[in-house]
Amino acid sequence: MSNFREKFIQDFITDNRWHFIVDGLLVTLRVTAMALVIGVVIGMVVGIIRCAHDQQTKNERRGLRGFVINLLNLVCKIYVTIIRGTPSLVQLLIMYFIILVSAKSKVMVATLTFGINSGAYVAEIFRGGIMAVDKGQMEAGRSLGLNYVQTMYRIVLPQAFKATLPALINELITLLKETSICGYIGLNELTRGGDIIRGTTFDAFLPLFGVAIIYLALVLIISSLASIMERRLRASDIR
Amino acid sequence: MKKMIVMLLTASMLMALAGCGSSAPAAAPAPAAEEKKEEAAAPAAEAKEADDDEDDDADFTTVTDGVLTMATNAYFPPYEYYEGGNIVGIDADIAAAIAEKLGLELHIEDMEFDSIITAVQAGKADMGLAGMTVTEERKQNVNFSESYATGVQVVIVTEDSDIQSIDDLADKQIGVQLATTGDIYCTDDFGEDHVEQFNKGNDAVMALKTGKVDAVVIDNEPAKSYVAATDGLKILDTEYVVEEYAAAINKDNTALLDAIDDALEDLKEDGTLDAIISKYISTEK
């Protein structure tokens, strides 16, 4: 036990080494939060475009509007294919070393990469959610005089959002843990914070388990917040 | 829907914030005064050389104005390692001395060792300084400065190991740091199947300690630090390969290469280089 105490002091107290963990945690949270927002925005736009395409009637496909939607759909499909088809570590390295060569802020590079990455997954989640809303809902909205955008925002998306929430939370958790690869571009996030300590003290146990426990705690917080949110959304089910 | 608008606004705000992250270029240094001082102090014979230096200084460009960005892998004591939140060590001190000579501010970027040359090539960093040995393959991708130190590749084994010499390494599993010269030599000499590459030197040492590999081939100085910090390990007396360390600089930036070479030359002459090295490496051996 005294050995544990010694190791703990050596790993976290000496030279203020806990700073690596705290600073890393803040970077991890920043990257995750900003990437989530970018991902949800991209995902929503792409998801809606893909649905608008899939739900067209035969007649609608022919006109100019149909052409534009087809084109947008193609672009979105390519985006989703490329992002889902390549590992996020490779995407991160490509962004850092090739596309955003002149970018000075690693946090920004990481945020953009993970935002774009998670956008592709969120898009598919939203698409599934929107497609799951009964076609009758859209028809009812349109026949009541709402236009497409109004029906989408007021009727279809709220229902879709409720259905997709568990999958979205899943994506958020994945995103949080995925940021641990940022060490490859030298961004000092949580995992790398532990790594730096490991590199200095040559002790693997405490830095690794410490980092693991922090991730676990974060995920627990996220999932409990999610269940509160789900309960609130379910309130409208009881009529 | 109000919520959507709020969400979009938050998104754009955050993106704007992210944009702010890329800080404005640091104020350019005012080297004029400093150089004048240097010139005045220098003997008449060297005055001309000082002038030449000044011309060089005016030519080279750095990734960020007024800042010398150094790429390294800070798990390589005593050349570079973390002390508190700062990266210190021989390379860090030498870089600081070079930066001072060039009138630049030093900024150190810590990254994976195999990313350093890419970073220098891609213009992410001005120079790679990481106890890096000059090799032919590396020369094809970057320019190297004059050598500033000599490195020796040594073999670390457990104290009870039956490995006595380099020849005993055949048929054994050897741990190395990815893309280091130890990796290159061992892969050449013993074959890929016998070499396990780790991202960091100390990961290889940990693997040795837990019996995952039979030996670790790594540079002498970090090897000493690892062995000192870990029980039950020793360094074989035989030297595996002797090699020269140098700084890696982008191929297109020959002006910076010249400037760094000049600065290194000066540091060698005035004894700063030796002072830095002996500060970190005890001469007991």
Structure description:
The complex is a heterodimer of chains A (239) and B (285). Chain A is mainly alpha-helical and 239 residues long. Helix content of chain A is 82%, strand content 0%. Chain A has a single domain (2-234), classed as MetI-like (MetI-like fold), CATH 1.10.3720.10. Chain A has helices spanning 2-13, 18-54, 58-62, 64-85, 88-99, 106-132, 135-143, 148-178, 190-201, 205-234. In chain A, helix 5 (88-99) packs across helix 6. The N and C termini of chain A lie far apart (58 Å). The mean pLDDT of chain A is 91. With 285 residues, chain B is of the alpha/beta class. Chain B has helices at 2-21, 31-41, 44-59, 90-102, 116-121, 136-141, 181-190, 201-209, 220-229, 254-269, 272-280; strands at residues 67-72, 75-76, 80-83, 86-88, 105-110, 127-128, 142-158, 174-177, 195-198, 215-219, 233-235, 241-250. In chain B, a hairpin with a 2-residue loop joins strand 3 (80-83) and strand 4 (86-88). The N and C termini of chain B lie far apart (74 Å). Chains A and B meet through helix 2, helix 5, helix 6, helix 8 and helix 9 of A and helix 1, strand 3 and helix 8 of B.
- Derived from helix and strand composition plus strand pairing, the structural class of chain A reads mainly alpha
Number of helices of chain B: 11
> Which architecture name of chain A does CATH use?
Orthogonal Bundle
CATH topology of the largest domain in chain B: D-Maltodextrin-Binding Protein, domain 2
How many DSSP helices of chain A?
A: 10
Q: Tell me the overall shape of chain B.
A: globular
Biggest sheet statistics of chain B: 9 strands, mixed
Q: What's the end-to-end separation of chain B, in Å? A: 74 Å
- The proportion of residues forming helix of chain B, as a percent range, comes to 40-55%
Structural class from helices and strands of chain B? Answer: alpha/beta
Number of DSSP strand runs of chain B: 12
CATH topology of chain A: MetI-like fold
Instruction: Please identify which CATH superfamily of the largest domain in chain B we are dealing with.
Output: Periplasmic binding protein-like II
Strand content of chain A: under 5%
Name the quaternary structure: heterodimer
CATH class of chain A: Mainly Alpha
Order of helices and strands of chain A: HHHHHHHHHH
| Rg from alpha-carbon coordinates of chain A | 22 Å
Query: What's the count of strands of chain A?
Result: 0
